[in-house]
Specification:
Layout lengths: L7 E2 L5 E2 L38 E7 L4 H6 L2 H9 L2 E7 L12 E2 L9 E2 L1 H12 L7 E11 L2 H7 L4 E6 L7 H7 L2 E4 L9 H12 L9 H6 L18 E2 L2 E2 L9 H24 L7
């Protein structure tokens, strides 16, 4: 499997990584040995092997193993193998100063749950920032952030390095925001168990805008929300008829101007229906 992610980074600074392959593969830092045991690389001697026009994600999380399967599948795995994308996961507990590697504590003033502490997060982010010479854009995944839209994704794709800080429990100590001043991003008005799924969503959407990751660039252009307004038009493939449902005749006509006009009309109609449904408080229109 192509995915070979750095699943933890010790506080001493040595990068430890685990290959999910039976043969040597190109990993996030270079060549992965299959001789067993972690390989250590000094961050002081580390220089990213990524070309300047490609992107690196550093993910700071309490649960790095969540990403193992995700990084080894589909377009992202191919992009990592091709060197277009680099993903490194860092276990926040490696920066804990407590005996049992705790990074959370009850909130001052009382209240339910636990908060992620400021000290390990600040130390972690500052050290991770030194692992690559490119400036890093720091993002905190939090429900109080601005909503992720395609226009936001387009902004993120202009950065060559992004650090994704995954929230957990009742969120972050406010001083994390006061000191590090991350951009705050939310997937929407709902509650997740943590920021890991949101981090995956950001990576998944952003890499599609990196040249060469999606084989057919036209498919990216025609995606829903590619202009941040319109939904994609309906699409059909074989067979022409199934259980009484037929492919529209215009798509079989071979008349490309008519097809383009039909697709534009369908896109606008679908978008208007969605907007009307949302205004009425309903779900997605059929």
């Amino acid at each position: 499997m192509v995915c070979s992610s750095a699943l933890s980074l010790a506080r001493a600074g040595a990068a430890r990584w685990r290959a999910q392959a039976s043969t040597p593969e190109r990993g996030v830092f270079g060549q992965v040995s299959n001789q067993g045991g972690p390989t250590e690389i000094s961050p002081h001697n580390f220089e990213s092997n990524m070309p300047a026009d490609q992107i690196r994600f550093d993910v700071i999380t309490l649960f790095p193993d969540i990403f193992t399967g995700y990084l080894g599948e589909s377009l992202l795995a191919k992009a990592i193998e091709a060197g277009s994308v680099e993903v490194v996961c860092h276990n926040l507990r490696d920066w804990s100063t407590s005996k049992h590697n705790k990074v959370d504590s009850p909130p001052y003033g009382g209240g339910p749950g636990m908060l992620l502490q400021v000290e390990p997060i600040v130390h972690c982010v500052r050290e991770v920032q030194t692992l690559d010479p490119r400036p890093a854009h720091l993002i905190a995944l939090t429900p109080t952030g601005r909503r992720l839209r395609q226009s936001v994704v387009a902004e993120l794709a202009t950065h060559r390095r992004i650090i994704l800080l995954c929230g957990r429990y009742e969120g972050f100590d406010q001083r994390v925001f006061d000191i590090l001043k991350p951009e705050e991003i939310s997937l929407g008005d709902f509650v997740l168990n943590g920021g890991e799924v949101a981090a995956m969503a950001i990576m998944d959407t952003t890499i599609r805008l990196i040249p060469g990751v999606v084989g057919d660039h036209e498919s990216v252009v025609q995606d829903s929300f590619s202009d941040d307004r319109s939904l994609e038009f309906p699409q059909y493939t074989r067979p022409r008829e199934f259980e009484g449902h037929n492919v529209p005749d215009v798509l079989l006509s071979g008349h490309h101007p008519k097809i383009a006009a039909w697709r534009k009309e369908q896109s606008l109609a679908r978008t208007a229906n969605r907007q009307q449904s949302e205004e009425q408080g309903g779900g997605s229109p059929s």
